[in-house]
Amino acid sequence: MTRNIIFLFLASVVFISCKKDNSEVYTQSAKDAALGEVLIVDVLKQILYTSPNFLIDEQDSIINGIILSSEPEVSDSAFPKTITIDYGDGVTGVLGKMRKGKIILKINSGTVITENLEVSFENFSSDGSSMWGNILYAYNPAISGYDGELLNNGISIVNPNGTMKLNGSFSLSKSSTSGTVDLMDDIYDFECVTSGIDFEQTSFDYNTSKKHVVDFSCKDYIISGESNLMPYEKASQIITFGDGNCDAIGTIMLEEGQQKNFNF
């Protein structure tokens, strides 16, 4: 009887310890690195969704409430041009994302889809997260996609949680058109080598170890893949993004075996 009581006591201690370990898995850097990735993809999708038709026909300047303009005008043969994608006080997209403010891009020819895109922002936000800084999406025909760089000091992201930063480089290579000509269901492979500071002001390195699959038909884009995350003075983490579902759930795994899910 005594031995059974001791055994149950020890089992309870182990169980409580495991619960405590899992509760102490640091999640902020993982959430914020994923948020940065989602926003980088979201900006590119918005550019490809709105700009090509506008540059073909200047009359096509309002798309589902989004207003486009060009300086010089589209009818002017001079380049470079600065294209402004203006969401005003708020436009809700087909997948339910609310965007406000302006995405501004500089182009050097009339073909947006196959050229370098120099992007900046003016009071732009997507689903409550504002973006500041500059992104270069350099078109790479070898991957039918883009080699990207977060320019200068990278991008800053601001929302009610505070301010976070992300710096580094990335690539988006198109892997599928899903058998249609509609870019809204295109699929890309995403890879990155980045560093940043999360909303709790912890610095981190975030590098892809297995390509992330990014599906334009999913609201939060990332549906699979894996990255190594190293938050400063905390345990290194392996971040996995599921098995192809649009559920916006990632999993943090530590070397010691603890793991914890998070939403992004």
Can you give keywords for this protein?
single chain, alpha+beta, 16-stranded antiparallel β-sheet, 16 strands, about 20% helix, about 50% strand
Please characterize this protein's 3D structure.
With 264 residues, the chain is α+β, with helices and mostly antiparallel strands. It has one domain (26-263). It has helices at 2-23, 28-56, and strands at 62-63, 66-71, 81-86, 91-92, 98-107, 117-126, 129-132, 134-140, 145-159, 162-176, 187-197, 203-215, 222-231, 237-243, 249-254, 259-263. It has a 16-stranded antiparallel sheet that branches. The longest helix has 29 residues, at 28-56. Mean pLDDT is 92; it is low at 4-20.
Please give the share of residues in helix: 10-25%
Can you count the beta strands?
A: 16
In N-to-C order, the SSE pattern is HHEEEEEEEEEEEEEEEE
What is the total domain count?
Answer: 1
How is the topology of this model organized?
Blueprint: H1 2-23, H2 28-56, E1 62-63, E2 66-71, E3 81-86, E4 91-92, E5 98-107, E6 117-126, E7 129-132, E8 134-140, E9 145-159, E10 162-176, E11 187-197, E12 203-215, E13 222-231, E14 237-243, E15 249-254, E16 259-263
Antiparallel strand pairs: 1-2, 2-3, 3-5, 4-5, 5-6, 6-7, 6-8, 7-9, 8-9, 9-10, 10-11, 11-12, 12-13, 13-14, 14-15, 15-16
Short description:
The protein contains two helices and 16 strands. It is α+β, with helices and mostly antiparallel strands and 264 residues long. The chain starts with a helix and ends with a strand.
